[in-house]
Write a structure and sequence with these properties.
The protein is mainly α and 155 residues long. The chain has helices at 9-26, 34-46, 51-58, 62-74, 96-118, 122-143, and strands spanning 78-82, 90-94. The protein has a two-stranded antiparallel ribbon with strand order 1-2. A hairpin with a 7-residue loop joins strand 1 and strand 2 (90-94). The longest helix is centred in the last third of the chain and has 23 residues, at 96-118. It is globular.
């Protein structure tokens, strides 16, 4: 028989919300919106995507995503390219500059997070590290991403 207490979904949701707020607070610079950074991360994780697929994945309208992709193109962070198999279909690709921008943001976030983690007891740091695989699976399930790090094109 399982002696663990039942999972309190409301408490879990509130805790994950606090974690989301923490990660947002660590995100500097704040020159790009969370949706913009999330879109870049989606392109990095999933590969080239059609605008309609990106809109669905990010929870925004297709016209809003079209505007966002246009902004990313102007800033050199993403680009539209015709798909090799069907020149009529256009996919959004992450550029090297977009990949570098994400890496720079993550490095800054990781540095600030490391400072916070250093103030926690070793047992708390170990518990957080142990929870990461389950959190990855939870995020993957929510985003429709398999357990593999790179799932290929959105198609």
């Amino acid at each position: 028989m399982d002696a663990r207490p039942p999972l309190d979904e409301l408490e879990l949701a509130a805790g994950l919300g606090r974690l989301y707020s923490l990660m947002r607070s660590l995100s500097l610079p704040r020159d790009l919106s969370m949706t913009t950074v999330s879109t870049l991360a989606t392109l990095e994780r999933r590969g080239p995507c059609r605008v309609t697929e990106l809109a669905a994945l990010e929870g925004v309208t297709q016209p809003a995503m079209t505007q966002l992709v246009s902004r990313l193109e102007r800033e050199g962070l993403a680009e539209r390219r015709a798909l090799a198999g069907d020149r009529r279909v256009v996919a959004v690709h992450l550029t090297d500059a977009g990949r570098a921008d994400l890496a720079r943001r993550r490095a800054g976030q990781a540095k600030r997070l490391a400072e916070l983690l250093a103030g926690l007891p070793a047992s708390d740091r170990a518990a957080i590290a142990a929870a990461l695989p389950a959190l990855d699976r939870l995020a993957g399930a929510a985003l429709g991403v398999p357990d593999t790090p790179a799932s290929g094109e959105c198609e």
